[in-house]
Amino acid sequence: MKHSAREEQWADWMRGAIGGDTQAYNRFLTAVTPHLRAMARRRCEQLGAPPSEAEDVVQEVLLAVHLKRGTWDPSRPIGPWLSIIVRNKLIDSLRRRGRRVNVPIEDVIETLEAEPSGDGFDRLDAEHLLQRLKDPQRDIVRSISLQGTSISETAARLKMTEGAVRVALHRALKSLAAFYRSEEREDQ
Amino acid sequence: MKTNDLISLLAQDAPVRLRLGRMLALALAVGILVSAGLLLSTVGMRANMGSAIETIRVIFKLVVTFVLAVAACGLVFRIGRPGASLTISAWLLLPLAALILAVASEMAIVPAEAWRASMMGRHAAFCVFFIPVLALAPLAGFLLALRNGAPESPGLAGAVAGLAAGAIAAATYAWHCPDDSPLFVAAWYTLAITLVTGLGALLGSRLLRW
Hints:
- The complex is a heterodimer.
- By secondary structure, chain A is mainly alpha-helical.
- Chain A is built from nine helices and no strands.
């Protein structure tokens, strides 16, 4: 990917995110998602998979981008890094769903550069993975994602410190990613 | 869960607490300390190191293992980062070339009848046993840290971790090792490091998937 203005913007947001700026991070993820969605839908179409599956793939890729963001070197452009993470997780996720795929990196780079179209419809098999989380992790994930409560509100309600809620949330996200991987083994 | 809900969830977990580079640096420091501590507390440093270090073969052994360790560790710091250049791996050729050169000159100096004895040395079996033992701590540390990385090939990343851990162990063991012939180093150090590299590849392909 060339150093487009968009890429610079994404890199800026991600730098903010790494430093703890949740708003910048929200902007980054929101900006990247339509590209991921376009990519996932095109793959699903080619493979004859239902488009609803694409949204599951998008969410799994987002989770991977999130958990691996510490491997991006903030002094380097974000495009190549993002392309590789997305490509690998895309292949991984589709393969786990029983689709043999080969995603050339050029395709990923192209789609990240193109203007995305269409909005997402939301649906998830992460829902049933959420069931496998234990409380308070599941409770924390639900209250922040579904009810949109903040960390501090969640902490107050559960009589936990904010730090403890943050740690629990981070562990929950790691567990979700591990659940995705273990699903694969059950399938094989 | 809707994708937008997931995004707000992820956003709440924005800050990165421990960077991959720092974790690897920590693993490296602890690995070296444990490895060196293990050597000193068991077999200890070679008794006559003070005078031995003046001989060219001992200097060679220490330098070549050290350079290998540095080059391999440089690779470990990159293998977990998608898109990072791996051209640094060319530095691995430096100790390899030095080893080949040293073996050739050893064979030129030492008469052919003595090659076998030089290669076998006195403690070949112990060398092949103890280098992997010394490599365990750095290998465990590297693998643990790399679990936070995103290696494109988990097996290869594990192999690189094994190579670096084996090289650190070899560079440590060289301070004890009483066998100085480059033929010995070429045969047994190489075998020991290869074993650790293979172990790393095996573990990596299981532990470093993401």
